[in-house]
């Protein structure tokens, strides 16, 4: 399911350039209307081995803005899309935002127009463009150093597929019976994106990609996101 929030701003909304953690905290705060569920997602979520998945994603904020002192200043309205394969999560968000509004820091905005969609992927092959950047990485178990892959490496696409396998198994309890196939659209450049999230730098990539596989697998990725760190604002795509 997909939830699109259109927030009318009674006063300008000022956010740091690295605002993903702020949006994530808004989502968790809204889910606290059902404390047990919110705690489950925040503490563990759906697991596959040592990996934990929250099964929601959000895109970048959209709206007219200007930049000043390395901050975004949205002036009249801002929109945000949240997706999840879990209807309960979307419905809890709608209920919470309707009752309590959306608080960015000390300012609560209550003039919110919410749209709920249940769009599904019905194809076995799609061409997508990233709405929020795609990231995949590996961490050395001895040094704890993290390496972020890039689309010039075959390992980048292998890591996207491995992430899909783990995420699908974590949610459904069974492994997919076939892989997805992903490749960069020919002659299209991928734009590098680096941001800081709670003290750590994350490298990710915008771009256009070919995706193929079983329809239900592509739909699952449409709801949950491609690659890693979906619940931190990475991996949302739209169809071209």
From TrEMBL:
Q: Sorted alphabetically, which Pfam families does this protein's record hold?
A: Cas_Cas6_C
Active-site annotation = 28 (proton acceptor), 42 (proton donor)
Metal-binding as a keyword? no
Q: Which GO terms describe its molecular function?
A: hydrolase activity, acting on ester bonds; RNA binding
GO BP terms, alphabetized: defense response to virus
What domain of life?
Answer: Bacteria
- Which positions fall inside the CRISPR associated protein Cas6 C-terminal domain? 121-239
Q: Per UniProt, which keywords does this protein have?
A: Antiviral defense, Hydrolase, RNA-binding
Enumerate the residues marked as the site Transition state stabilizer.
54
Q: Check the record and name the InterPro entries matching this protein.
A: Cas_Cas6_C, CRISPR-assoc_prot_Cas6, CRISPR-assoc_prot_Cas6_N_sf
Q: Which family does it belong to?
A: Belongs to the CRISPR-associated protein Cas6/Cse3/CasE family.
Q: PANTHER family, per this entry?
A: CRISPR-ASSOCIATED ENDORIBONUCLEASE CAS6 1 (PTHR36984)
Q: What does this protein do?
A: CRISPR (clustered regularly interspaced short palindromic repeat), is an adaptive immune system that provides protection against mobile genetic elements (viruses, transposable elements and conjugative plasmids). CRISPR clusters contain sequences complementary to antecedent mobile elements and target invading nucleic acids. CRISPR clusters are transcribed and processed into CRISPR RNA (crRNA).
Q: What is this protein called?
A: CRISPR-associated endoribonuclease
- Native species of this protein? Roseburia inulinivorans DSM 16841
Gene (name only): cas6
């Amino acid at each position: 399911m997909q939830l699109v929030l259109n927030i009318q701003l009674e006063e300008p909304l000022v956010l740091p350039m690295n605002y993903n953690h702020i949006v994530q905290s808004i989502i968790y705060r809204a889910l606290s209307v059902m404390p047990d569920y919110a705690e489950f997602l925040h503490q563990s979520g759906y697991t596959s081995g040592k990996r934990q998945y929250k099964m929601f994603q959000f895109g970048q904020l959209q709206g007219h803005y200007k930049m000043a002192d390395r901050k975004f200043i949205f002036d009249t309205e801002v929109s945000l899309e949240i997706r999840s394969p879990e209807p309960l999560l979307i419905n809890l968000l709608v209920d919470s935002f309707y009752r309590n509004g959306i608080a960015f820091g000390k300012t609560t905005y209550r003039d919110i127009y919410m749209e709920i969609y249940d769009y599904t992927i019905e194809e076995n092959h799609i061409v997508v463009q990233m709405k929020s950047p795609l990231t995949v990485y590996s961490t050395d178990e001895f040094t704890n150093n993290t390496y972020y892959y890039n689309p010039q490496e075959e390992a980048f696409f292998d890591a996207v597929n491995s992430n899909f396998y783990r995420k699908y198994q974590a949610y459904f309890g069974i492994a997919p019976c076939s892989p997805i196939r992903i490749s960069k659209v020919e002659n299209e450049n991928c734009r590098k994106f680096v941001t800081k999230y709670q003290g750590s730098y994350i490298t990710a990539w915008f771009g256009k990609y070919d995706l193929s596989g079983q329809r239900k697998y592509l739909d699952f990725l449409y709801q949950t996101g491609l690659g890693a760190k979906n619940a931190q604002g990475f991996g949302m795509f739209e169809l071209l």
